Amino acid sequence: MFESVAYCILGAGPSGLSFARMLKKLGIDSFIVLESESEPGGLCRSAYVDGFPLDIGGGHFLDVRNKKVLDFIFELMPATEWNLFQRIAKIRLRNLEVDHPLEANLWQFDIEDQIDFLESIAAAGVVKEVPEPESFSEWIKWKLGDRIADEYMLPYNRKLWSTPIDQIGTYWLHKLPSVSFRETLRSCLEKKTGGTLPAHAKFLYPKEYGYGEVWSRMGHDLGEHLRLNCPVQTIDVKHGVVNSSIKADTIVNTIPWTSWSQIGAMPPDLSDSVGKLSYESINIAYAPHNIDSPAHWIYEPSLDVPYHRVLLRHNFCIGSNGHWTETNAKRPAPVENILFRNEYAYPVNTTDKLNIMKNIDEWAKNNKVLSLGRWGLWEHVNSDVVVELAMHAAKIAAKK
Fold first, then answer.
1. Which ranges in the chain belong to alpha helices (H)?
2. Cα separation of 12 and 226, whole Å?
3. C-alpha dist (Å) from residue 372 to 145, 211, 254, 340
4. Which of 50, 152, 219, 354 is most open to solvent, judged by the fewest CB atoms within 10 Å of its CB?
5. Residue 208 vs residues 50, 92, 177, 229, 318: alpha-carbon distances, Å
6. Model confidence pLDDT, tens digit, residues 97-128
7. DSSP 216-273
8. Are 153 and 171 in contact (CB under 8 A)?
9. What residues form DSSP beta bridges with 168?
10. How far from 361 is each of 52, 270, 305, CA to CA, in Å?
């Protein structure tokens, strides 16, 4: 005997929770959310370490730019429960902590160093209108110049990804800001940040909790619709049956596609293709002492340092102490300091990903499977973005 629902949602991260909550808001209660962990939130969960919150998936913050997303979240966790911050992100380079993004803050270096970087930017392929290269490493140099590429972007990306650097595609690098030699020079002369700031220029972080609190509340609000400690073990796509017990009109997937392949839920040829999707695992380590810096987080490109980013908890979690680091799990790190391991942390934009995802999307649509979130889309997108996409998808679903 099956439990029949309109939607079976796989995964209770921000995308799965937001899709479910929006369905509920629209008067649809025929859904179930399955979550393998004992609490909701996915990569955005928080734990308490030394009496204060620590975000177990790394660093997660709420961008302030999307009012619809903020209003949606504030219904469960009002604005009065959040602190607003003007982002301070730093890069450790040439024995300094320089504001991020680097190309907008070269003026913080000594004059000789500024000249060094400016000469390199002036010679960049994009400035000289040279055709765009195909390899990742050459594209970075084409975009930013040799100095920024060799000292920051390339070593940082080698640390972040265990995938060989030129197996990573360039199709997603539109996220990098345009580098105008004129604007960069003006920034150095005027001694102020130039260009447009990236995401999280302003961000919110809970006053008394970790970022996971909002997702915990969202999960609680779903009541019996949320099934915790319930991993996906079988999927019969043809009949819309999950775990041999739940029959759904539509399966909403927010878990990694590789897990579908592992349980045999896909045709063999597609499963083989999905097995080529790449992802990174991240270790989160904690240290109880404060770092003397005003930064909320610091990027660390040096290959001599295991971690790629450090989060200074005392600068955004008021009253706390200590810091935590994010390290690719394939890099060496002090084992005794590791508190959390995230097997699925970052999807990798390999050169063949677009073709693989195109095949997955076509198959999914033909089998009434809706893809959402970081892992359904296999995109490294921030939580506010996946919430917006989930809200939109639920509204479309409600009209059918």
1. 14-25, 67-74, 111-122, 136-144, 146-148, 154-160, 181-190, 212-221, 257-262, 268-274, 353-366, 373-377, 383-399
2. 8
3. 36, 21, 5, 25
4. 50
5. 14, 30, 34, 27, 8
6. 999 999 999 999 999 999 999 999 999 998 89
7. HHHHHHTGGGEE-S-----EETTTTEETTTEEEEEEEE-S-HHHHHHTT-S-HHHHHH
8. no
9. 350
10. 41, 11, 39
32 has a pLDDT exceeding 80: yes
Q: Which helix (H) or strand (E) holds 343?
A: strand 338-347
- For residue 197, pLDDT over 80 is answered with no
End-to-end alpha carbon distance in the chain: 26
Indicate the Cα dihedral angle 383, 388, 394, 399, nearest 10°.
-170
Give CA–CA dist 301/158, Å, rounded. Answer: 9
For residue 347, which amino acid is it?
P
Tokens at 181, concatenated: 């030699």
What contacts 212, CB < 8 A, 6 or more positions away? 39, 41, 44, 45, 46, 47, 53, 55, 56
Dist. CA 139–CA 333, nearest whole Å = 30
CB contact set of 272 (below 8 Å; sequence gap of 6+): none
Q: List the one residue out of 38, 126, 90 whose CA is nearest residue 301.
A: 90
Beta partners for 7? Answer: 31, 250
Dist. CA 400–CA 391, nearest whole Å: 15
Distances (CA, A) of 12 to 17, 24, 38, 83: 5, 15, 10, 25
- In sequence order, the 6+-apart residues with CB closer than 8 A to the CB of 114 are 106, 107, 188
The token duo for 76 is 């469960």
Q: Which helix (H) or strand (E) holds 53?
A: strand 52-55
Cα 313 to chain center, whole Å?
A: 19
Mean pLDDT of 280-308: 95
**CA dihedral of residues 26, 383, 241, 353 (deg, nearest 10):** 130
CA distance 103 to 118: 9
Banded model confidence at residue 177, pLDDT cuts 50, 70, 90: low
Task: Quote the longest CA-to-CA distance of the chain.
Answer: 75
Structure tokens at 340: 């959390």
Q: Choose among 297, 357, 293, 355: nearest CA to 324.
A: 297
